[in-house]
Queue: 2 jobs
Job 1
Amino acid sequence: MEDRTWEQVGRLRKWLDDEAETAGTADVRLLRVLKIGEEYGEVAEAMHGAMGANPRKGRSHDWNDVQKELADVIVTAMVALDTIAGDAGHVLAERLDVLVDRVCPEPQEA
């Protein structure tokens, strides 16, 4: 992942650290992880809206809304990881390697 991405995540985390009423409390890690669930709920709402699954609301969202909400989930999770981990970029890169290696083994040479 680009260094700029983690730099931007760090800027968001710092802003939250400076501005949020819960900044500096023991609960900040918990609240940042719980925020992921809130963002997931917004993805679910956008999905329902894009698919017209709620007859009362009809097609209240489109697939661009779903994409934006998914991006918000990713960014929120990255901010939470950056809050908890000393080197979030390294933690994510290592975990991604493990997950990819588990399901996408290197091709065997004949």
Note: The chain has four helices and no strands.
Job 2
Amino acid sequence: MIATPEEPFRVVFVCTGNICRSPMADVVFRWVAESAGLGSRVASTSAGTGDWHVGERADQRTLEALERRGYDGSRHRARQFGHADFTSADLIVALDRSHERILHGWARSEADADKIALLMTFDAAAGMLDVPDPYYAGPGMFDEVLGMIESASRSLFRQLEPAIRPAPPMAHPLTP
């Protein structure tokens, strides 16, 4: 799908509990789009494959890592990915291969499955396919994971930008 003035390009980032990696990706991706002046042309959200944290804020270490880099994750509330996300999203971005497998298992059609991508595949410089789960690690791991997400999110946005950037106005045929 190509974004239109009426309908933005919709992205859902998915991790396990929707309190660490996917909220980071959502916040960073929105920041990248807004910084490029295209915030109104994309809509992003995040979700988890599990329901353990539904309604909760992001993990405090996630919020702190985001804040250290100048992002605001305070509005995030965890939710579980649902079948409606396949309908509403143009792109569903898994943070690791286990999420990708789960999402493919939930896909009801080939069209649903075709919307699923792995975040790190957008970053040619990435040395791994999975964004590690920092949940059981210390604050330093949250910063490391955020760095990976920032790089991959910028790469993802660069790949989407031509499709979401509005076309320049056509010159009038009688204009010299």
Note: The chain has a mean pLDDT of 93.
